Automatic annotation (TrEMBL), chain A:
InterPro entries: Rab3GAP1, Rab3GAP1_C, Rab3GAP1_conserved. This is Rab3 GTPase-activating protein catalytic subunit. GO terms for molecular function: GTPase activator activity. Belongs to the Rab3-GAP catalytic subunit family. Residues 784-988 form the Rab3GAP catalytic subunit C-terminal domain. The lineage of its organism: Eukaryota, Metazoa, Ecdysozoa, Arthropoda, Chelicerata. It comes from Galendromus occidentalis (western predatory mite). The keyword Endoplasmic reticulum applies.
UniProtKB/TrEMBL annotation, chain B:
Pfam families: Ras. This is Ras-related protein Rab-3. Gene3D superfamilies: P-loop containing nucleotide triphosphate hydrolases. InterPro entries: P-loop_NTPase (IPR027417), Rab3 (IPR037872), Small_GTP-bd (IPR005225), Small_GTPase (IPR001806), Small_GTPase_Rab (IPR050305). SMART domains: RAB, RAN, RAS, RHO. PROSITE patterns: RAB, RAS, RHO. GO terms for molecular function: GTP binding; GTPase activity. The keyword Lipoprotein applies. Residues 194-222 are annotated as: Disordered.
Length: 989, 222
């Protein structure tokens, strides 16, 4: 289409995709400032955590080759490399020629270094090549992989070019095949060397190549095409891994069993704890021979020197079962599900309410479920059919009685029973610790401290009725038919509480007095019930006492009655005959009376001393408690008396909250501020009435002088005692129409016995009982949980010394957390249970490890007592070091064992493997049981063998400079892998 | 008197809510102090508080909306049992005494004991001296010296403020300081969350614990 006359130009400057790719790699390298990267010095030892334990970082960016998107990632050990400063660069430029001769690039040093041979946790390339800083390119195209040799070569070529162009010394890898395969190839270009990284992976191990001798031959062949080049010194590191994952050889009875056996005696308050399954899945022993010269050991098909017993380094690592079944977690966690069950008791019991339930219980139910709506079908469809054991039913009287007795009859030896049961005895440790009684005492102290802390939780005191109630109900849930058992027992318990309430029996095992707001809600409610019962008992006692005195009083009252009309006389008040009725009748009749205190103030008060009651109190004044200092009433100059007052109604926290909410609602409207005061004025009003009754002829100022003395200014007198300035009420008390005055005007003189009760025990008691019986399952669980959580925590705290090292601070935090959580309106029990589970697992793991490692040495046919003593001593010290090992294993991913096979710990581990081997051999040979196995048979076949071979050797020709070469070989059951790094001198060849 | 915005107490838009109590002997000026802070108003005589009353004020602290629910209490002896019931759940206390009243100063120790007995252990307290009038006018009537007040505050480990509701001295500062120490204490307890089992999902709840999503009082029990 173009004009053919014009010459055709081809733009040769247009970059190809390949060139673009290289350019983008170079750009990236420059951007990340990698060209001048140098090491900060040799790596620290692996045990002090360099490659394995240091902090690894990474940084990624995508690059594309045409449309093929890839991700370049730099992995580097923080602090192990740095950018060369310009000064250094200049200096190095001068010394460059010598430098080239003297030292190898740092990555090559790393290849040869044997300080970091088998890091515990690291990127596979780090584990295999021992490098500290490298780049890795991985396809970023979903499942697309780099699998063909073409692509590999193309990428490798690009990478090599980019590295050389930028003078970047970092190894650059290309991820091949699927990432799971862990196959990569790579290249490193530095100081005129090219180092190529390559890997081989086979499913079967070629014969002979799983031995050191075989691999040495291979390595030498590759380097100099001759396996007979014996003078090539090869440094070798070897590591064998042995694994135990089958614990069936352990006696089953040595694992503590907490299974809920139906026939077992019900152990209230002893929550189950511990793992229900083996919490340890694998026990691995890694033995290594670091930095061997090749000719020191012999390892061939025919014979091997490589047995764990003579390995200088031992290392142990554990793998745990994730989320093992644990008893306590299960016990609590399952009950936690009840929190989300909103079914009513009626619904749950509806289907059960049949003739087989004892009539008393049915009676309770009848009384409660007023208009009974029977929805048995619905109930059946909502409730999942309970697969739990139904053998133990609460409908069985005997069991029900057991439960009720536990709840309502306090047992004296409760404490001792609890502390002695549920203690798992691990013979060895406890004897070992027993020898250090001081330590044991310390532990006991610590446990005591924890228990002290637990006491501060917003729950209930240990072994109080609330505590026992909570534990019995969760037990009923678990062993007596799930929610039905729970509901049945709850109804029964509330029935019993009602019985107490109606008969006036104080509920025992709970602190007396007003609800303690520092305790859980159920605790407060029971205390409140007791307050009701007590108040009523006291009232009834008073009344019955009056009954006895009735005759004379009646007589007097009757004659008094006929005197002046009661409403007109403020001093009138003695009206004992109506006492019994007073509480039933409201104060409406009296408040409707015209109240004329202030008006009648001036009139002299009759003091009919001749009308003395048997209590010897003046008839005109009632409800006097004690004289109030030397104060005299202002208008009558009579002694001022402190009246007997009604105590404000005890409140549980939910009542308080209700009241607070009401105030909040009112106060949000500024006009209602007066209303909030009015709402709370009952107590003030009652005090005023009492005061009036006790101090006939008093005025508001008198009341203020007693109630709020700061609102009264005493009169000022001169030297002669003449009043210069009259006493006065404060400004705020005299504001016209303020509430104090209003109330004072409305109050009529009435002793507490004739006032409206501030605390209506009948109403409050009924309210609580009604609330308890109409609760949903979730409400019930919410009431019970605080004590259950505390009981669980207590259980854990008893074993706090059996856990990992961090157990104590962890538990301290957990208790603090629980304390805060229990103050919330809706505590997050799930989270608390999860944290408790964590502690439980920690303890279970530790216990399992101890059990495995603390196997008693077979008692040797003993000789002298001295020898026996020494043996005992030795065992004691070994116990201590094995305990150390257990704790280390729980803390660290890998634990090095000092002294290897010869150490006490090493012996314990050998024993463990030997026992497993014996168990395996038992089927075939019989007499091995007591004999020790020969060293070669103590351990099973290693599940993994790792070899690292490395050397310096000039390549490709004899005239080349020497470069680093390395092979890492790992042989496991179904994998044979070689990871090689071979250097070629690109300057002299 | 400027009236409080109507939606102040029902406003759900806040990050934290602190419940604060003002306590102290009767007629030391608790109500005046609260009105000065919440409404910026002053009246020489408020009706003596019956029981408890409260006001709401929202402040900004570290980019967070903090809603203060400030409870005003009756100081009379007879109201002790009623008011102490409200101590639980309060995160801060303002303990007041009157500079012209020796008794109110002597009772400070008692009030602190009350707080220790009835409040949660993480509650923060500041000690406030009130001048029931113009500060300089009151100097003649002063019976408790600044030094004695300061000394007592130090001894009890409380922050100390000399304030006047009438002249609006130090009122705002006092509340702000209290909010600050509550915030400090809160972040202190929220910091650590240890884990025993490596790799176990670490607690994520700590942070949202104190950011109530619901209405007032949702977060605490009473």
């Amino acid at each position: 289409s173009q004009d053919p006359s014009l010459p055709e130009f081809k733009d040769f400057t247009t970059a190809t995709e390949w060139e673009k790719f290289i350019a983008s790699l170079e750009q990236l390298i420059e951007e990340w400032r990698l060209p001048n990267i140098v090491s900060t010095g040799p790596l620290a030892n692996v045990s002090t955590g360099a490659l394995g334990g240091g902090e690894w970082k990474s940084r990624s960016e995508t690059v594309s080759f045409a449309s093929f998107r890839m991700m370049v990632t730099r992995h580097y050990l923080e602090g192990s490399t740095k950018e060369r400063s310009e000064e250094d660069q200049a200096k190095e430029a001068l010394e460059e020629t010598e430098e080239y001769q003297e030292s190898l690039p740092f990555a090559m040093d790393d290849l040869l270094s044997f300080t970091n041979d088998f890091p515990a946790k690291a990127h596979f390339l780090v584990r295999w090549y021992g490098i500290r800083d490298f780049l890795l390119i991985t396809p970023d195209m979903g499942d697309d992989t780099i699998s063909t040799v073409d692509r590999q070569k193309m990428l490798l070529g690009s990478v090599c070019t980019a590295l050389r162009n930028t003078n970047c010394q970092l190894p650059f890898f290309i991820q091949m095949h699927h990432p799971q395969e862990k196959i990569a190839c790579g290249v490193m270009c530095a100081q005129g060397f090219h180092c190529y990284f390559n890997m081989v992976k086979l499913v079967h191990t070629p014969k002979g190549y799983d031995t050191l001798n075989g691999l040495l031959t291979l390595f030498k062949n590759k380097l100099c095409n001759s396996s007979f080049y014996t003078h090539l010194p090869v440094d070798v590191s070897i590591r064998f891994t042995y694994m135990l994952d089958d614990w069936s050889f352990f006696d089953l009875n040595s694992i503590p069993s907490h299974s809920l056996d139906v026939d077992q005696v019900i152990k209230f308050g002893d929550l189950p704890m511990g793992a229900g399954v083996e919490p340890i899945s694998e026990f691995r022993l890694m033995v290594s021979w670091p930095h061997l010269a090749e000719d020191v050991v012999n390892d061939s098909i025919a014979h091997s020197d490589l047995v764990p017993a003579n390995a200088p380094e031992w290392c142990v690592t554990i793998k745990y079962v994730s989320g093992p079944y644990c008893y306590l977690e299960n016990y609590l966690g399952e009950f936690e599900t009840v929190l989300s069950k909103n079914e009513s008791l009626d619904l749950v019991l509806g289907s059960m309410l049949s003739d087989d339930i004892d009539p008393e219980l049915a009676n309770v139910m009848d009384r409660l479920a007023e208009p009974k709506v029977r929805v048995p079908d619905l109930a059946a469809s909502i409730m999942p059919s309970d697969t739990r054991e139904k053998r133990r039913r609460l409908t069985d009287d005997e069991i029900l009685i057991k439960f009720m007795n536990y709840i309502f009859i306090p047992s004296i030896d409760q404490e001792t029973v609890l502390s002695s049961s549920g203690h798992i005895d691990f013979g060895d440790i406890s004897t070992a610790l027993g020898s250090q009684s001081a330590e044991k005492l310390e532990e006991a102290d610590e446990v005591e401290k924890f228990k002290e802390k637990l006491r501060a939780l917003k729950t209930s005191s240990k072994n109080s009725i609330v505590w026992r109630l909570s534990l019995a109900l969760i037990e009923a849930y678990h062993t007596c038919g799930g929610i039905e058992g729970l509901a049945l027992l709850w109804v029964k318990v509330v029935g019993e509480l009602r019985h107490h309430f109606e008969r006036g029996y104080i509920i025992s095992s709970i602190e007396p007095g007003a609800p303690n707001l520092g305790m859980c809600l159920l605790h407060q409610k029971i205390q409140m019930l007791n307050c009701c019962i007590e108040t009523r008992n006291a009232r009834e006692l008073r009344e019955s006492r009056k009954q006895k005195k009735k005759v004379p009083i009646d007589r007097m009252a009757n004659c008094h009655f006929k005197m002046p009309p009661q409403s007109e006389n403020p001093t009138e008040g003695e009206n004992s005959s109506s006492d019994e009725d007073f509480f039933e009748c409201s104060d409406s009749t009296s408040t409707s009376e015209p109240v004329g205190d202030d008006k009648s103030e001036g009139t002299p008060i009759q003091s009919p001393d001749d009308f003395k009651t048997l209590d010897d109190a003046p008839l005109s004044a009632e409800g006097r408690s004690k004289p109030f200092g030397a104060l005299k009433l202002l208008s009558t100059d009579e002694q001022m008396w402190v009246p007997v007052c009604q105590q404000p109604s005890p409140m549980t926290e939910d009542m308080l909250q209700e009241q607070a909410d009401a105030i909040l609602k009112l106060a949000s409207d500024p006009e209602c501020s007066k209303m909030t005061a009015r709402l709370q004025s009952a107590s003030l009003f009652s005090d005023m009435e009492s005061f009036k009754a006790a101090n006939p002829g008093c005025q508001l100022a008198d009341f203020v002088r007693w109630f709020s003395p700061r609102d009264w200014t005493e009169p000022i007198r001169d030297e002669k005692g003449e009043i210069v300035k009259a006493g006065e009420l404060s400004q705020r008390m005299t504001i016209p129409g303020n509430m104090w005055q209003d109330l004072w005007e409305q109050a009529r003189p009435a002793p507490t016995t004739r006032q409206k009760r501030l605390f209506d025990d009948t109403k409050e008691g009924e309210k609580i009982l009604h609330e308890l019986i109409t609760m949903s399952l979730s409400d019930i669980a919410n009431l019970l949980f605080p004590c259950i959580i505390q009981c669980g925590l207590e259980k854990i705290c008893e074993s706090v010394h059996k856990g990992p090292r961090d157990m104590i601070p962890f538990m301290e935090h957990l208790i603090e957390k629980t304390k805060q959580e229990l103050r919330m309106r809706r505590p997050n029990y799930k989270d608390l249970i999860r944290r408790m589970y964590e502690a439980e697992i920690g303890i279970a793991r530790a216990e399992s490890l101890r059990q495995k490692l603390f196997r008693k040495e077979e008692p040797e046919e003993t000789e002298s007592s001295l020898k026996r003593y020494l043996a005992m001593k030795a065992q004691e010290s070994s116990t201590v070091s094995v305990e150390e090992l257990v704790l280390d294993l729980l803390d660290k991913p890998e634990v090095e064992i000092r002294g290897g096979a010869k150490s006490a710990v090493g012996r314990a581990i050998t024993k463990l493997f030997e026992n497993a081997q014996k168990a395996k051999l038992e089927d075939t040979t019989l007499s091995t049981k007591s004999r020790r196995l020969p060293a070669s048979q103590q351990f099973p076949t290693p599940i993994g063998k790792e070899f690292i071979l490395r050397t310096k050797y000039p390549r490709p020709s004899n005239n080349s400079r020497t470069g680093a070469h390395r092979i890492y070989a790992v042989i496991t059951g179904n994998e044979f892998r070689l990871a090689g790094a071979f250097t070629e001198d690109m300057l002299f060849y | 008197m400027t009236s409080m915005p109507k939606d102040a107490s029902t406003d759900q838009n806040f990050d934290y809510m602190f419940k604060i109590l003002i306590i102290g002997n009767s007629s030391v000026g608790k109500t005046s102090f609260l009105f000065r802070y919440a409404d910026d108003s002053f009246t020489s005589a408020f009706v003596s508080t019956v029981g408890i009353d409260f006001k709401v004020k929202t402040v900004f602290r570290h980019d967070k909306r903090v809603k203060l629910q400030i409870w005003d209490t009756a100081g009379q002896e007879r109201y002790r049992t009623i008011t102490t019931a409200y101590y639980r759940g309060a995160m801060g206390f303002i303990l007041m005494y009157d500079v012209t009243n020796e008794d109110s100063f002597k009772c400070v120790q008692d009030w602190v004991t009350q707080i220790k007995t009835y409040s949660w252990d993480n509650a923060q307290v500041v000690l406030v001296v009130s001048f029931p009038g113009n500060k300089c006018d009151m100097e003649d009537e002063r019976v408790v010296s600044t030094d004695r007040g300061r000394q007592l505050a130090e001894q009890l480990g409380l922050e100390f403020f000399e304030t006047s509701a009438k002249e609006n001295i130090n009122v705002k500062q006092c509340f702000e300081r209290l909010v600050d120490i509550i915030c400090d204490k809160m972040s202190e307890t929220l910091d650590a969350d240890p884990s025993l089992v490596s790799g176990a999902n670490k607690g994520t709840r700590l942070t949202d614990n104190n950011a109530p999503k619901g209405g007032p009082g949702q977060n605490c029990q009473c």
